[in-house]
Amino acid sequence: MISPLFTRCCLLAFVSGFSFSGPAAAANPKAWFKADSINAADGAAVVLWADSSHSGNLAQAGSNAPTLATSGMNGFPAVRFSGSQLMMFPRPVQDDFTIMILFKTPGGAGGSDSFYAGSGLVSGERPGVVNDFGMSIRNNGRILAGTGNPDVTLRSDSGPAVNYGNNAPHVATFTRRRSTGALELVVDRMVRGTGTSGTQSLNVYPQLCIGAHPGPVGPYLNGDIAEIIIFDTALTSGEVVANEDALRGKYALSNGTAPSAPQNPSANGARLKWNEAIGAKSYKVYRASSAAGPFTMIAQNLTASEYTDPSPTGGQPNFYQIVATNSVGNSAASATVEGILPPLPANGPVIINEIHYNGLDNSVHSDFVELYNFSTTAANIGGWTLSDGIEYTFPAGTVIPPGGYVVVAEDPATVQVLWGVTALGPYAKSLSSDGEALTLKNSGGTVVAEVTYSSGFPWPCAANGDGASMELVNPSLDAKKGSSWRSSVAPTAELTGEVASPGAQNHQFSLNAAPNIEQVSHLPLQPAANTPITVTARLSDSNGVAGAQLSYQIVAPGNFIPAYLPIPIVSHNIDTSQPRPANPAFEDPANWTNVIMLDNGTNGDAVSGDGVYTAVIPGQAHRSLVRYRVTATDSLGASARAPFADDESKNFAAFVYNGVPDYQGIPASTLKTLPVYQFLTRKADYDQCVAYNSADQLTGNTPGWTYENWEATMVFDGVVYDHIKFRLHGGNGRYKFTSKRGLRFFFNKGYDFQNRDNDGELSPTKWNSITAENCWENRETLTYCLNEVVNFYLWRKLGIPAPRSNWGHFRTITTAAEQSDAYHGDFWGLIMIHEDYDSNFIDSHELEKGNIYKLTRDATDGASQQRYQAADAVSDGSDHQNIFANLTQDKDAAFVNRYVNFKKWSTYHALCQAVRHYDYWPTGDNNAAYYFQPDHTDQTDRLGKLWIMPNDVDATWGPTWNEGKDVVYSAVFDGATPLTSLYPTYFNSIREVRDLLWQPDQINPLLDQFAAVIAPFIPADTIRWKGGPNEAGNYNGIGGAGNVSLAALVADMKKFAWTGGEWPGDNSPVISRAAFMDNLQLGVSNSEGSAMPVTPTLNYQGPAGYPTNTLTFGTTAFADPQGTADFAAIQWRVAEITDPTAPAYDPTKKVKLEWEAAFESAPLPAFSSTYTFPGNVCKTGRAYRARVRHQDKTGRWSHWSAPVKFIAGENTGDLPIVISEFLYKPSNATPSEVAAGFNDGKMFEYLEVRNVGQSNVDLSGCYFDKGITFTFPPDSVLAPGASTLVVANPAAFAFRFGGGRPIAGMNTGSLANEGERLLLLAANTAAPLIDFTYKLSGGSWPAEADTDGVSLVLVDPESRPDPKLAVNWRASRRAGGAPGFADDTDFNRWKTDNSVTGGPEDDDDSDGIPNSLEYALLTNPHSPNAFPSGRLQPLTVSDQQADYLTITFRRLVDAGDIDYHVVYSENLGNWGETPVRTSITDHFDGSVTETWRAPVSVGNGGFLRISITPR
Prior knowledge:
eight-stranded antiparallel β-sheet; globular; mainly beta; Immunoglobulin-like; Jelly Rolls; 12% helix; 21 helices
């Protein structure tokens, strides 16, 4: 009989905690791997093994995957490990646990009885006596299970001797109870071993391994595993046997029992889910129309733990129960659950309903987009497309049934593994975690649905990296609004880390959605003391907004209220196994004030009835933090509070501040020469973190050492980053003396930190964490981080990615008094902050997506040091492990070149040698960062090529520890047989860095330039930190030249570079680094000095005055110890340098380093004694150096020649023209274009030349010699600002882009998709006018031009930027670009172009249309116009013809300063963005004409309007 018990929870009901008689699990598993859950053929590779517990612990194979044996375990599937495979999954337990495994093997490995010695079954072993655990089977068939620190191993000795390596099925269970340290091993229903271990968390290894031990890898298992079940509780012996027996019942083993009842069922509409029942072979589903029954079976023999009811009763509840079954019998019924399906409209749309864009693990391709047919009519979407963020065309015949779903996946197989859903795909491109546009178009190109999502209010936050999808709350909501979406929150039956509902009703679905809350803001942005703060929010709801409330909390200075409290420090440790406790004071209603928000034009509200609700917070005291929230309720009682539940920022906030005050006689204007960072926290938390009291100091190499235990608020640029976390930063010197501490700050999802450098420029990407250095280094010398900032800068100039850094003025608000004395108060002093190695670093430095590891002193494994996991890189740390374990002194050069980008490493290490960055050693795996470039040339294991990047570079520019030998250096130089074939590459880099960079005229001005940034601020920092009391922190014990003065520090660094001498801590005089580099470049035992080519001599051979179009130089002949026949290549370069005597010298510009070439030729294989540089690389009046070098056949380069310095003269043949836009990869021809005879996309190529000068330019006779072939015809005169086009096919061009454009003519040849050189020469002199190579050099070129059919557009063409550099190009605003027109515009440019005299709100032609709208709607600002008017138009929508209100208007698509919104209202009251665009005509001049219709036919009434808002 089916039990009628149930619990009802609103719309989506689910039950937990009801127990039945019979075998039942004492807890839900935290990880569960069942071979019968794998849908694959016999012998197929098992790359992914889904977690059937729905906890998200997906197991992934290494480079060698095990296979599926479909009848491997008594006729049931098993995963077969053949002695060389393993799988890894996130460690789900660390305290109490129970691990149960059903396996068989012909024998184990290893002759020792330690738990880590046998063939691994399930293991988190890590070398050493550490907090780890695991299970294995040794060579005598004994099962071993144990824990570490101290190492305790249970052996299956108790009872009769049994060899479990007999190739028969066995069930082994290992239990640990943390509170007592009790361990138990049960095998085949018998307790085989007990013992006592330590009581600490076993959390040292972040992953567990199946089929081997993870570190070091092996011994491997040779055998089959059918199931692994892991609980986060210690089951009793009886519970273990009961679960084993249920498992035995499934696999027809002796003593088997029926399975336990399925737990935690849930009904998501008609889709049912439940937790797997241990021992279940299959399931049955029963349905009833009432909770009391009767229940009728509607499905049986189900092997998955989910089912979609194909025939539910719509519009009323359906009730369900589930029963598990195996060969022994049936379980009791599950609890009863209720599911309800929403009603469907007759002619509803197809919508974008769910987006999963950033899962837990980048290597698991789990992204997808779900469409929902919100209609009673089936939707045929064959030929429809998803575009922008991804690209996908739906196959012909794709039909979504009424109320049905279709899922398009990045990898359909992964979606099948994770959710059991069949998906279309794969799609092209990928969804960005930073935000993306998604557009659904029908087969006619009309936009059906579009979403532009991001992370952070009003968009969901947990969808960005926490594993959740982003779900539309109700299909009738406006999907373009972020508050219409929520992060998926799984019901109890779906605990998976990858939380989503593909192919089913959204978990967050609500029949009555709460009001939309958008555009929450406050003014002033950073209010002064006692200034009222006006808070506004745009609210909307289809049922009407019944009320709105503002709740605010005042955080007075010195009374910081964190949302969470720190975990106590006990015996110098933090128990990181527990979460930080919530702070009751934060949510205490007594600490919040509630006021009504109004939209009636009173009490600060600007406009009545405009949907913007307003409330005013009274003015507050200087240095106060004002937190606030907005709650909106609709007329049916549904409410929402912003920020939303998954938003870690928990509230909005404003910081009340009157400005930085003077400090100890130093004016505020001086203090503000550096960017100001305000830091608010509790004084007790700050004091505990910095730990001037030794009792608060943490033990190194423990989890607490790197745990973000304390909460704070950061304010920068007026932006409040609330509820961030912080901790100390640093290794050996973290707690040295009572010195200034290094800190790390961690920002919340959706609210990454936007920094500015010391020039006031925004960082290219936001940072999710920042590191603040302490301004001294481990040699106990005060450096102000000058060496570190310079080091990072130089590495970046050398092409080695290194953290962006800047100095700042740091202020800590922990007390009520702003500044009680010099040492106590807000002024904290100088910090140097820099970005960290993570996903943002990849984007900031425009790197290909590859794995990143930040090496620390705390570990040597890859998993715990990994900072970024690339989607297509190995996910088991094997790239790092390969370097750590295999790049040894016995490897050959082929191995090094296979796994190391040796040229990059050589350049990196050359600067290490120059600045003496030596704080590492070959086996240390520390003080560096590893980036694995996804270059798999000559690799079969796809591990990528190593780049080493700098980390922990404080101990430089002076005596330091160690010898500068990292793992690469040791492999090349320290083996019994050194890898001499690699010497030329390494010593070439040493030589080049010494020749071009490590020179006094390069380094000295750079040191002076950076020192000047902090020089005004140093006196204030000195007052604060020199001689301060110990409880406040001081520089006591810190010495060195910097302790004397900044000038002394700079002089000391120059002395170290050029003179040498003696320093504290060194036992003998040190030669200068210049002299050291001179000796080093000669090689090992003069290997290079005796073999490299003779340094050539360069001389100028061009006309007097160095005209830039005829810069011709000559070189002496090639000479080499091996003879002149050894010539291989010659290379020429010219670089701008800083010279105050140059006519065009600009003292505001930064020091120009000769390393950065204005032009550098490729290595030229044919020797020529003369060379003429391209005519556009040097600018008149600026100073340059030219050089040449020679290479021999061994790969050795000579020194660069001594430079020839010159001031670039006039270029008499120069013309002020640029290539302003070109399209090298047009989109494919459309059907109509093919029908017109234009069937090749290359026919639509074009190149645009623009006159950026002030007078006419005659291009007659000028000709393209590279890339394309074309000569400008007579009378090709361009007026100032005018453009002309060279096109591949004029007829095709006109067909696509329209006529009337300034076409100069048709070229021959075509633009190469892979990139090539473009060369335009002058008519009579053949002097280069434009010369550059696109895509092949100069950085990362816009990728959209390769895939989206967009053009490349020159940035700021009027300034004639260097076209060789990718940074000076961007993708066009739209496909095809805007040939013959500017690709972007704004009001000011339009105003100038149209001779408009008034401002945006003026009306130059007095027609009632302000200039801003004339601009936006492309009307004539000098003659009267009329607003676009609506009209009735008969339209067929969803196969039904009716009259619709429509509006047609022309708009700018290239406007960078405004947004357009077409909105609809039934009553001129509530306006919503519900209209539908019915047509769009692109004029390819930066504008389109669009027609929009109302969402309903005219029988329902209504109004349309166009809203134009500033961007």
